[in-house]
Records
---
Amino acid sequence: MYILGRGLSGGLRTRVAAAFGITVGSIVHTLAAAAGLALLLATSPLAFTAVKLAGGAYLIFLGTRRLFTSSSKRLRPDPQVKPARGGAGLAFGQGILKTGTICCVAWSRQSRQMEHCCSAALTVTAACCPSGASIIPGTSLSGRSGGQMRDSQDYPLGYSEREARRLAEQGAMLEDLTAEVFRRAGIGPAMQVLDLGCGVGDVSLLVSKMVGARGAVLGVDRASASLHIAQQRAASLGVSNVEFKEADLGEFSTARSFDAIVGRLVLLYLPDPAQVLRRLSRQLRPGGIVAFQEYDMPQTSQVPASELFTQTRGWLLQAFTAAGAEVEMGTKLYTTFLHAGLPAPSMMAAMPVACGPDTRGYEYMVGVLRSLLPWLERAGIATAAQVGIETRAARLRDDAVANARVAFLPRAVGAWTKVGGKAAP
Ligand SMILES: C[S@@+](CC[C@H](N)C(=O)[O-])C[C@H]1O[C@@H](n2cnc3c(N)ncnc32)[C@H](O)[C@@H]1O
């Protein structure tokens, strides 16, 4: 429309320049979007507002100029009047600006969709990203082969960009339950805390709020790309008391002392979690806290249970087991603490419940199943065609709503103890 308009009001040069402007603008803005600008806008309220204001100002400018230009001048170019000097340059520049305006609107929409996606926490927790930490900032991983951050052979869920986003959504879903475990464990202001297997940073960011500005958190994970995202999230939230370090927990050692060692959904992946806890708990000050939250997956259930749900649950359990993960790590926290030489822990358990048409519980289950698809296929458990991943969550939810089914997601078990002191009740 713009090129047509310029064609009517200008000469051939103006028309060509306008077309070039639109083309160059499209390329520039597409490249910017591909580089993760939309993701950045989603995480930086300042950048998002700046783009909205700039876009709005430009639209007001266009509208005002239209108003004060007589309609006859606009519609009927005087054949005697040659196109103004610099008309081609102006058309070129305007072409770029116009694609910019359209892209701003598109990026804003994208940003809002991502906010919506992360704020849709499960019905039971109704936790709408209270830490504000559930959006993943501008980190474009699309250039990496197959969308993988790194080889996922030995970690069942892999490190794709989609998995990173799933982790953040899971973080929002579990935030209240995890905070309750840490609160009961005694995590509080001014503590120095070590977060094992921090992933994209949800637990570290949660604890950073609990320890406040006088405290500090060190998050450790072996996936550098996850740590990069975690760092960006902390920066975009203005959190300065968290740092992240890349290390394998099987070998990680530090000379630093801590008031607490925490972690969530990480011990299940370690070949010898008790050995890791025994080694790292030596870094605890007297009275230091060990607090973890892990799943009991077999406890996932639906009442009354559908065939589709039973199949989905079964595949999840089989895939995790085939990948070598401990599916009952929640219960095993008790013996793991004892084997690590720690005092018997206090424990609590809770589980998110999926019910009603607005629940995201089935999306959560199927999100995990999606990340496990390579394992399902590799272990000969199910084929992609059998899984039908794109429609499975909707099928599960529709069936649950139609038949008034209630699903209990994995039991999240918390365990905590104090080294050289008594565990909080
Ligand atoms: C399910 S994620 C949980 C992340 C985070 N704790 C949370 O709750 O959001 C498990 C994390 O443990 C990390 N992990 C697994 N085995 C590890 C190891 N041996 N050393 C370091 N990190 C490990 C993975 O890289 C992954 O980021």
---
Amino acid sequence: MPQTLKDLLLGEMALRHRLLSEEQLDLCIQQQIDERHRRPLGKIMVEKGFIRNDVLEALLRTQRRAMDEFEKNADYGRLFGKTAVLKGYITEEQLTQAVRAQARKHARGVKAKIGQVMLELGLITISQFWEIIHEQGDFTCGNCRQRIDRPFFRGPAILCQNCKSPAFEVTTDSPGPKPRRRTIRRKTEG
Ligand SMILES: [Zn+2]
């Protein structure tokens, strides 16, 4: 049985605030899995003596706020995720995997859209990403003002089919060096 989103957020936040180590968190999660009746993860953290009860209470308040915020922002994600499943690009399980990865980022203070997370996890391609967002509305090139319907794809960028300027860039925060976008400036005079 996978962890609930709430416990996942709580664990990530505890790590982020350096209240316990990853090994200690893993011990708590394992204990939770081993017990027949699932108890809240925070209770196990306190019981094992890793965090104090008053610290847990403060952490739970932060976790509730984060959970509310996460759910408020999840509307776009739900539509995107549902479309990806309906189109057969991903399975329900993969959608769950993506939502959990997104929640983990959220707990670390990184706000990522579900589509970005799916791209990072390699669950969808950039052209599938485009197919999904295109279904949700029309896109006009900010440069040439033409409607984008058959764009080009280059790395994480979606390029306008008319003027080839990046129409939509999917920003990722995956670790490691970020590829720099090369901008070619043309001298236009007169
Ligand atoms: Zn254009």
